[in-house]
Amino acid sequence: MTRSFTAGPGVDVITTTAAIPALGSIAINAFVLHGSEPLLVDTGTVAGSADFLATLRSVIDPAALRWIWLTHTDFDHIGSLMALVEENPRIRVITSFLGVGIMGLSGTPLPMDRVHLINAGQSVTVGDRRLTAVKPPTFDSPITTGFVDDKTGALFSSDCFGAVLPEVPDNAGDLGTAELQFGQIRWASIDSPWIHDTDRAQLGRKLDQFRAIDPSMVYSSHLPPAAGAMLEVFVESLAKTPDAERFEGPDQAALEAMLAGLGGPPAPMDGS
Questions:
Q1: How far is the C-alpha of 15 from the C-alpha of 30, rounded, in Å?
Q2: Long-range Cβ contact pairs of 107-113 (< 8 A, separation 24 or more)
Q3: Please, are residues 5 and 225 in contact by the beta-carbon 8 Å criterion?
Q4: Nearest-angstrom CA–CA distance, 77 and 48
Q5: Which element (helix H / strand E) includes 210?
Q6: Per residue in 74-119, pLDDT tens?
Q7: pLDDT in tens, 29-71
Q8: Per-residue three-class SS string for 135-173
Q9: Cα(91)–Cα(39) distance, rounded to whole angstroms?
Q10: How, if at all, do strands 129-134 and 155-156 pair?
Q11: How far apart are CA 231 and CA 18, in angstroms?
């Protein structure tokens, strides 16, 4: 089920919870930034587009949107992108050169006169806000671009700082530190498996850069909204991840055992 709630001044969250079998659940978030030129951060899942659009309409008239910030082009971020672009001819999409390229391969290319290209370190003025693009310390796509809202000091971190959780609350502050860090380490191992092979000193420098942002709030695509003071806990989670157990998904034998437990048809073990 997709729903919405207000997470901070001028920020509404549109969220759904996805179950990850045998692991837990994860939030899938998009964000509406209200202001003189309203902006939507990501557009939900492809499979859940109808529910996403209905929930979005309860938060804001899509005709009032002026911008979409596309953090990257995974299927849980682009679900309603083209529907909104087609419905509202005044929407512009903020993304990177690679983001435009990937969308061009999808069969639904972005119209180039509706795109605003941005790289990490650059800023764009969106009505009464100035948004500065940042490259998060972990990511699953080279396209990934988050940002800092210079008006409020909020950090929008895309997939970075996500967590696999037993249950997903509306506020990350409702989670115990141990539960939160375990879920964040598990998520980073799944979403950014290269982190186990990264240079520890280089990762530490990148994490220090994020500490220096000192945000008022942290809005992650896959974690409930969090007060900026929690950033230190999040950074510690990522610092621990390279030395944590690597994630390895179920193999065919495990799949067959799960299917048998669910009462599904037995699958042949010999490949015949």
A1: 6
A2: 108/81, 108/82, 110/85, 111/85
A3: no
A4: 11
A5: helix 200-211
A6: 999 999 999 999 999 999 999 999 999 999 998 889 999 999 999 9
A7: 999 999 999 999 999 999 999 999 999 999 999 999 999 999 9
A8: CCCCCCCCCCCEEEECCCCCEECCCCCCCCECCCCCCHH
A9: 9
A10: unpaired
A11: 24
CB atoms within 10 A of CB 122: 12
**Residue 112: φ, ψ to 5°:** -65, -25
Instruction: Give SS3 for 112.
Output: helix
pLDDT in tens, 159-199: 999 999 999 999 999 999 999 999 999 999 999 999 999 99
Residue 43: strand, helix, or coil: coil
Average pLDDT over residues 126-133: 97
- Within its chain, how far is the Cα of 144 from the centroid? 9
The one-character DSSP state at 38 is -
**Residue given tokens 């191992």 in the structure block:** 189
Where residue 24 falls (left for φ over 0; alpha for ψ -120 to 50; beta otherwise) is left
Considering only the top CATH level, what class is 3-261?
alpha beta
43's tokens: 């557009």
Query: pLDDT tens-digit profile of 19-28?
Result: 998 899 999 9
Full 3-state SS string of 236-267: HHHHHHHHCCCCCCCCHHHHHHHHHHCCCCCC
The answer to whether the CB of 212 falls within 8 A of the CB of 148 is: no
* Token pair 């971020």 in the structure block, residue: 77
Instruction: Sheet containing 115-117: give its strands across.
Output: 3-8, 11-20, 24-33, 39-41, 67-69, 92-95, 115-117
CA triplet 181, 153, 216: central angle to 5 degrees? 40
